[in-house]
Design a protein that fits this description.
105 residues; mainly alpha; Arc Repressor Mutant, subunit A; two-stranded antiparallel ribbon; 2 strands; elongated
Length: 105
C-alpha cells in the first residue's frame, strides 16, 4: 500500500477502490477469501482468465495491500489482508454514513 497514509483513511480508500475497479480483481479477492489462501493456479482453475492475466491482477492487489503474498518455492500463496479489509470496511461505512447525513458538505 502507499506510504501516504491519511488520518481519515482517504488515501487508503482511494488506493483500494482503484485496485478494486476491475471486476476480475473483485472475483479474485472473493476467491482468495473463500479459500483462506491459494496460489495463482488455484485461481486460474476457477476463473476464465489466463494465468498471466491473473498474475497481473494479483500484483495490483498486492501493491494495494489488499492481499499478502508468501513465497513457498516453487509457488507463491496469496492471502487476504484481513486487517486492511476490516479497516476499509469501517472507513467506507463511516464515509457513506457522513454523506447520507450531509456532514461532507
Amino acid at each position: 500500500m502507499t506510504n501516504n497514509a491519511s488520518p481519515d483513511g482517504t488515501v487508503e480508500l482511494a488506493v483500494a477502490f482503484a485496485a478494486l475497479s476491475n471486476p476480475s480483481r473483485i472475483d479474485i479477492l472473493r476467491h482468495i477469501s473463500r479459500c483462506g489462501h491459494c496460489g495463482c493456479k488455484d485461481i486460474t482453475a476457477v476463473l476464465p482468465l489466463a494465468q498471466s492475466t491473473i498474475s497481473q491482477h494479483l500484483k495490483v492487489l498486492v501493491q494495494a495491500g489488499l492481499i499478502h503474498m508468501e513465497t513457498e518455492p516453487p509457488r507463491s500463496r496469496y492471502q487476504i489482508n484481513e486487517n486492511l479489509v476490516r479497516s476499509l470496511s469501517d472507513t467506507t461505512s463511516n464515509f457513506l454514513d457522513s454523506c447520507c447525513r450531509g456532514d461532507s458538505c
